[in-house]
Amino acid sequence: MLEALIFDVDGTLADTERDGHRPAFNAAFAEAGLRWRWDEALYGELLAVTGGKERIRFYCEHHDPAFLGQADAEDRIKALHTSKTRYYAKRLSTGAIALRPGVVRLLREAQGVGLRMAIATTTTPENVSALLPADLMALFEIVGAGDAVARKKPAPDIYRWVLHELRLPASACLALEDSVNGLQASLAAGLPTLVTESEYTHGHDFSGAVAVLSDLGEPGRPCTAHRGEMHGNDWVDVTLLKNWHRDALR
Ligand code: XBP
Ligand code: MG
Question: Are the CB atoms for 207 and 219 separated by under 8 Å?
């Protein structure tokens, strides 16, 4: 039986990468006097690595290896990431990024039927609270975020951590993801997973997902199913999630 939904954040609850995280990284670099600038195309490549600190390190390896040669390189990366997190929160407080179609509707419906809800993300806990209004934040019983685990997605660790906190087996849960790294993490933790593609992940190989959709859809605003059976629905509701969950465990 489906008892809990576990949501990824970036790309799944909101399209935060291009106009949220990316400009925040750039603002932090500029503030630190660095000439690094991540344009939209480069950022798409850097998204292969999850986690902001890990992404900065990966960028340095390929574009500015001398930076990593400094004795205090790790401290500087940490400081850049703290500054980036501040810029990101400031940006979100202006309402710059909206939640994706169907997200609030599905969260409320899940709440109404007593499904438990949790978050499994590589971003920081601060960034989750910056994105979600307090009344929605309160719907999530467990927030697995950032450095709660040593290995970020595609490792399954954050999902395993959340399952442990929920005291539930993977078979009682469904994950919602938007990226290949996220899907690999959730599948490796044994979770049936629904994918809603996001700005940077459209057309990626989502083999193993219960369905791959454009978004969750809304009444009067149907979603597109790239893969999977919509069972006659135009948008995702809890009944459809239960159908996918049951089919995945057969
Ligand atoms: C999200 C990420 C994060 C954000 C930046 O991946 O990869 O690194 O881009 O967040 P997912 P931080 O949606 O799979 O969790 O800078 O806070 O790490
Ligand atoms: Mg994501």
Answer: no
> Which sequence spans correspond to the domains of the chain?
4-15+98-249, 17-93
Name the architecture of domain 4-15+98-249.
Answer: 3-Layer(aba) Sandwich (3.40)
Q: What's the CA gap between 128 and 13, in Å, rounded?
A: 10
* Superfamily classification of domain 17-93: Putative phosphatase; domain 2 (1.10.150.240)
Ligand 1 contact via 153 beta carbon (within 6 Å): yes
| pLDDT by position in tens, the chain (length 250) | 999 999 999 999 999 999 999 999 999 999 999 999 999 999 999 999 999 999 999 999 999 999 999 999 999 999 999 999 999 999 999 999 999 999 999 999 999 999 999 999 999 999 999 999 999 999 999 999 999 999 999 999 999 999 999 999 999 999 999 999 999 999 999 999 999 999 999 999 999 999 999 999 999 999 999 999 999 999 999 999 999 999 999 9
Q: Which residues contact 68 (CB under 8 A, 6 or more apart)?
A: 57, 60, 61
**Atom 14 of ligand 1: nearest residue by CA position:** 182
154 CB within 6 A, ligand 1: no
Residue with the nearest Cα to atom 17 of ligand 1? 123
This prediction's pTM: 0.97
* Phi, then psi, of 35 in degrees rounded to 5: -90, 5
What is the residue whose two structure tokens read 């044994």?
190
